[in-house]
Amino acid sequence: MVGGEWPHAMMEPHRGALVAQAIARKLAQAMFDQGLSANALARRSGVNRQVITNVLNGTVWADTLTVIDLEGALGVILWPDHVQWRIPAAGEAPEGYNDEAEGTSAAGSSAPDSVG
C-alpha cells in the first residue's frame, strides 16, 4: 500500500493487489446493500466468517473458490474485469480509476471495480 486505508488505499502497482482490493470493496458494498453481516453471509455461502472478515480487512486475498461461493450467495459478481487495466506506476491511480462507482476511462479501458 502506498497510503490510505484498505480497501480504498492507493496500492502499489501490482495487479493481484488491485484485484484483491476491488473484490474487498465489492464484497463490502454487496453486504451493505443486502444488509448482511459476516455471520449471515457465512451461513448463506458456507464460507467461514473469519475468512470473510479477513478478506474485508485485507489480511488475506480470497482464493477462487471463496470468491465463487460468495458470488453465488450474494448474486453479485465480485471478480473485477481487470484485463484492460493499465497498471500504474507506484503512487499513481490506475487509469480511469473511480472509487465512487464502476466506470470506464476515456480510453475505454475498464477501471478497477469499486464501491462507493
Automatic annotation (TrEMBL):
Give residue ranges for domain HTH cro/C1-type.
34-76
- Reading the lineage from the top rank, the first entry is Bacteria
Bias class Low complexity marks the residues at 103-116
Q: Where is this region: Disordered?
A: 90-116
> Any stretches that span the bilayer, and where are they?
none
Name the InterPro entries on file.
Answer: Cro/C1-type_HTH, Lambda_DNA-bd_dom_sf
Record-given protein name:
Helix-turn-helix domain-containing protein
- In its UniProt entry, the species of origin is given as Streptomyces bikiniensis
Taxonomic path: Bacteria, Bacillati, Actinomycetota, Actinomycetes, Kitasatosporales
